[in-house]
Design a protein that fits this description.
alpha/beta; binds magnesium ion; binds 3-isopropylmalic acid; Isopropylmalate Dehydrogenase; 12 helices; single chain; 10-stranded mixed sheet
């Protein structure tokens, strides 16, 4: 039976990188793609970044593949105007996608493309586990002419479930990142993570690091990290920082899941092959944005999009060998010298796609 995928090209370079990703997927299996306008494109058509129809289609799909949203056309500080990002936040919340996984593993072929020195990044292989449906992103907001506030709130249950995702994903160590010296939410975070750890995962090492210090260690000693567990906004910031270890933010994929699959061979939460909540296997998207500055020039790096499709194959559809095939095709294309402009080269989107397809 064909896998039913909702595709959301979004804005800017989104359509330019999503189309080649579908070419890559078509080589690997039987997929039915259903495209919906999303973000700024949907605001232009319907006045809302995420329509009820699109949300319902995403809920009913096996997985959702999203490229990027946003652009100067819809940038505004007017609290009443619709914004493309609201579509993304609505989708995450609407599908209950509380677990955002952002793997950061620089490929040897790109060691010299990173602004960080090779000997510093060599051997880095870390995972950022970002809580995605709570915290300051979703707390109450107020605004008058001279005052504004955003509430940061977390419940014990929200912290417990994301902590379990991190402990399940870790090889040996979880670094829980917070600001417990200042924030009350961080003090609850630290307590709950410590409890989950000692009750359910005593065999995994746990350390607590303050977010400012974690930001420093990410660039000074990235090999120090195995799995970083953190709340929504800290995870947003640290994952962009971590992206530069791979040479370009154009390389980093992400998976947003409601009940992540267990790593092979482990037991416990969540239930075997289980998908909580909606039924949808997750949302898969590059970490980078819509890059309005290079839109329409044919030079967008599609690799983070391809690697996001690989995460969809692995985490959303349970197709591990197909996922690995995409990842190794990307790696081999880079080994043979493929470089888009963000990586210091001259290959365009079409050439990059051809290079990856050749190795698939
Ligand atoms: C990300 C993005 C989004 C976020 C924006 C576009 C709302 O930066 O996925 O990291 O802040 O979560
Ligand atoms: Mg971000």
């Amino acid at each position: 039976m064909a896998h039913r995928i909702v595709t959301l090209p979004g804005d800017g370079i989104g359509p330019e990188i999503l189309a080649p990703a579908l070419e890559v997927l078509r080589v690997l299996g039987d997929f039915e793609f259903e495209e919906h306008p999303f973000g700024g494109a949907a605001i232009d058509l319907y006045g809302a970044a995420l329509t009820d129809e699109t949300l319902a289609a995403c809920r009913a799909a096996d997985a959702v593949l999203l490229a990027a949203v946003g652009g100067p056309k819809w940038d505004t500080t007017d609290p009443h105007a619709p914004r493309p990002e609201q579509g993304l936040l609505g989708l995450r919340k609407g599908l209950g996608l509380y677990a955002n996984l952002r793997p950061v593993k620089p490929l040897p072929a790109l060691y010299d493309a990173s602004p960080l020195r090779r000997e510093r990044i060599e051997g880095t292989d870390l995972l950022v586990v970002r809580e995605l449906t709570g915290g300051i992103y979703f707390g109450e907001k107020t605004r008058t002419r001279d005052f504004a506030s955003d509430v940061c709130a977390y419940t014990r249950e929200e912290i417990e479930r994301i902590a379990r995702v991190a402990f399940n994903a870790a090889r040996a160590k979880v670094t829980s990142v917070d600001k417990a010296n200042v924030l009350e939410t961080s003090r609850l975070w630290r307590e709950v993570v410590t409890e989950v750890h000692s009750r359910e995962y005593p065999h995994i090492q746990l350390e607590h690091v303050l977010v400012d210090n974690a930001a420093m260690q990410l660039v000074s000693a990235p090999r120090h990290f195995d799995t970083i567990l953190t709340e929504n906004m800290f995870g947003d910031i640290l994952s962009d920082e971590a992206a530069m270890i791979t040479g370009s933010i154009g390389m980093l994929p992400s998976a947003s899941l409601s009940a992540p699959r267990e790593p092979a061979g482990s037991a416990g939460f969540p239930p075997e092959g289980g998908r909580g909540g909606g039924g949808c296997g997750g949302l898969f998207e590059p970490v980078h944005g819509s890059a309005p500055d290079i839109t329409g020039r044919g030079i967008a790096n599609p690799l983070a999009m391809f690697l996001s499709a690989a995460l969809m194959l692995r985490h959303g559809l349970g197709l591990e060998s197909e996922a690995a095939a995409v990842e190794s095709a990307v790696e081999r294309a880079l080994e043979r010298g493929l470089r888009t402009p963000d990586l210091g080269g001259e290959a365009g989107t079409v050439e990059a796609t051809r290079a990856v397809l050749e190795h698939l």
